[in-house]
Amino acid sequence: MAETDRPTTNQFMSVEQYLETAESLKWLLTVAWLLPLLGFAVEIFGGYWGDRHNKVASYLAVGCIGTGFVCSLIALFTWGGATHWGHPEEAVAAAEHDHAHDEGHAHDDAHAHNDGHEHDEEHAHAEEHGPEHDDEHAHHVNDPYSAAFSGSYYMLGQFGDLTVSLDYYIDGLTIVMFCMVTLIATCIHVFAIGYMSDELTDDYEDHFVHLPGGKHFHRPGRFYRFFAYLSLFSFSMLGLVIAGNIFMVFVFWELVGVCSYLLIGFYVERKSASTAANKAFIMNRVGDFGFLIGLMILFTSFGTFRFANPHPTERAVEPGLFQMLRGEHGDLHIHGEGREAEVFLTTATGDHDKSIPYWLLVTAGLGIFAGCIGKSAQFPLQTWLPDAMEGPTPVSALVHSATMVAAGVYLAGRFYPMFTPEVLLVIAYVGCITLFIGATIAIVATDIKRVLAYSTISQLGYMMLALGVGGWVAGLFHLITHAFFKSLMFLCSGSVIHGCHHEQEMTRMGGLRKKMPITAYTMLVGVIAISGLAIPYLTFPFIGNIAFSGFYSKDEIVATALTHMSLNPVHFLLFLVPLVTAGITAFYMFRLWFMTFAGEPKDEHVYDHAHESPWVMTAPLLVLSFFAITVTWGMQIDEEGHLKPGYLVNALLTAEPAHVGEGLTEAGILGLSLPGHHAVHEYHATAGTAALIAAFAGLLISYLIYVNRAIDPAGIARQLSGTYNFLVEKWQFDNLYDAMFVRPVHIVARWPQAFDRNYLDGFLHALCRCAVWVSKWDRAFDERVVDRLVNLVGDVTFAVGRSLTVIQTGRLRQYVMFIAVGVVALFALMFVFMPTL
Amino acid sequence: MNEIALEGYLGIGALLFVCGVLCMATKRNGIGVLMGVELVLNGANVNFVAFSKFGTLGLDGQIASMFVIVLAAAEAAVALAIALNFYNNHLTIDVDRANELKG
Questions:
Q1: N or C, fewer C-beta in 10 Å, chain A?
Q2: Whole-number Å distance between alpha carbons of A688 and A700
Q3: pLDDT at A204
Q4: End-to-end CA distance of chain A
């Protein structure tokens, strides 16, 4: 191909342009990344430098993350300008205008550009989804890294072959994630100024800590500390996103884990909070164990941790993981059959002189995915996330819904080229199980934050499922949209909790929309978005359909799943479960809204004291609800049921691994087929309609039960008491883990404990007694021998000095005589002892 | 004119020195002690000048003796001041009465 013959350019820009863009993007994102660290370093001393009543720490934190958002936004536009927002043919056409190319393909591009396609997005969709446009398609496949930038900040060390360094890897996904994280974090920081304001005191009374004697626990407020933790978290999360190698990802992975631990356990005096923090940390360690195994396999087989080296001139010198494993078209070089199968790797020399056994590659993928399971609270490690709601609500919104738990999905997406079809199937089924478990438990939960927590688990399951069935863009697209509407809903619930004076039980709320209208209606936006409701086939220019963001992302997921089922009928559950769950999602989300905001007040006391939150808390709600609606603008489903990608999807598409667009047929040991863009395209209308029907059904049932009262929920609970209790007990997972791990560990621990008490302690005590006895002797020797000797020397010196005072008479004449006699005596001695004279 | 040998000068110096020391040792009068000191210093001066004359050091010894004379003058001034003060305090200049420095 002409493109590969000229390694100095790619389809977006020339080398000079590339280097220039890379440099500016690097600095912008680095500033955005490091500012919160600076904020943290200052804020953590807030308790020493200021009193506990001022809000300086919060302003500093907001300033840092807000500046970070501005930098990210500038980076987004820099990137968009350089890559023409992911429309390579525009760049080629622009180059065509500037100076004439002699290569034929460029003319073809220009033709394609001038022929027939007038609308930009139409054009993009043809490029991304149309294998019939072979020429253009080849561009994208040829150079999957043309819109990506990477490099190294600092080499931490070199241990033999292993180079550990701080790298960055910036592509469309990185930048979109940066904008999302910094924007949401800014909103949540601002919200937290209001939410955490009761910590602005020297004497905070914690009503949830009961001391003996019925008293409440008092402690100094920790306002500054909360913001210090938030800043540290923002820094870690951005580091995780910008990381250019899998080792650095691991480092920041653990850092966000630590921040999560600190923030869940923010009210550390509450037993439930400290236990929840421990639980989250320990369950994440289980997943990270797999992550470490994956890292070891990758290092031994590949000898590098870097993702990819997209630099156009150095690419062959230092290929990253993805470039070693996958060829230009995203294909694997597999040789051999069955257990003997090996994958050849492309090394710096261009030869296939390295290889990795296929099963080992699968293991590495599963190991890395195990880390994602822990962090993203997937089955079977999902139980920590609901407990993590013990943290303050802004934390739940930032860490445990929008960013950190999505990091698992992000990593699965980032690491996608390393996953074989077998691993993808595991990912799909794990996601499928998780999304069903989460949604079903959310039906019966009555704590407003727990409903949202289970909803988060369920939605993360959707994302994993999407990645697993081959919908790379669908999964990450849902990550972004979900981050907006879920953080919005968490903040709304925080507003409700704040307004109702820390009442979290939905059974005691109701009718609150009259008391707190802004919270209620922004929450409704979130609920509609997550349920995926829309008015289809009614389109407007620029805005697209009448639909909130969740509709498109969920439609993408369900459509990909449907295509996957049509290709692999065996795995029909991977379509049916998400479809049914779409209905359940709508049901429990509207249940939450109806129970909280609609109907009659159930508890007069709570209702009477409820109030709308101050503007510092409602303003972030309005901002987030705006984005929950508009983040997908530009997308639409036209009359034929074809989906046009919007700006966001186009940005993500540039980062899509090369092999995803075409799909796979009969790949891997299991003969799994994955849908390509073109195949998915056929199913958007069907899947969208089905998902919409499910969602409206859920809404209808919810309305009948909780507003119309046509069906009595208590009656259903009585009739299906077995199922109901099963769900209330969270599918018995906690009990199961308790029986499987916690109690056996306790039993086993009792043995070492007994051994410790009886033998080790006895031995140690005997040793101690020995030591005491020996030291007694030592002391006696010291006192009787050493001390006396020393005292004797002192006494003698003192006595001599005392007796010599006699000759110091103070009489001048006597001294003169002493001198004279002394001199004479000296002379006499000299004559006696110096015979030479 | 008969040249006086080095021994003659040294003999005079030693005589002056011994006289001075004896004076210091025996006089109870503070002024007498001061005179003894002057004698000792001048005995040393004679030696300096003599060695300057007979030795190879040129004028060094004479310069040293000039220094000693200046020093003696300064010392006499300070010592007389001490003697006056001592008299003011004790109404005597008997140095045997000045024994407050005894150990």
A1: C
A2: 18
A3: 85
A4: 111
- Residue A148 — very low, low, confident or very high, per pLDDT cuts 50/70/90? confident
Nearest beta carbon to residue A817 from set B25, B33, B103: B25
Q: Is the dihedral of CA A719, A722, A724, A728 positive or negative?
A: positive
Backbone phi, then psi, for A243, in 5-degree steps?
-55, 140
**What's the length of chain A?**
837
Contact A811, B95 (CB under 8 A): yes
Q: Tell me whether residue B50 is exposed, middle or buried, using C-beta atoms within 10 angstroms of its C-beta: 0 to 12, 13 to 18, 19 or more.
A: buried
- Cβ–Cβ < 8 Å for A70, A236: no
Which residue type does A716 have?
I
* Residues pairing with A205 in the sheet: A218
Which residue type sits at A40?
A: F
d(CA A713, CA A724): 11
CB B102 to CB A813 under 8 A? no
pLDDT (tens digit, 9 = 90+) per residue, A569-624?
Answer: 888 889 999 999 999 999 999 999 998 888 888 888 888 888 888 888 899 999 99
Candidates B96, B97, B100, partner chain A, best to mutate (most A CBs within 10 A): B96
Instruction: Report the pLDDT averaged over residues A27-55.
Output: 85
Q: For residue B102, list chain A residues with Cβ-Cβ distance below 8 A.
A: 808-811
Q: Which of A68, A63, A385, A70 is nearest to A193 (CA)?
A: A63
- Output the CA–CA distances (angstroms, integers) from residue A215 to A210, A212, A282, A390, A567, in the order listed: 6, 7, 32, 21, 64
Look up residue A789 and give its two tokens: 């000797």
Contacts of A807 in chain B (CB under 8 A): 103
Find the residue in A nearest to B18 (Cα).
A820
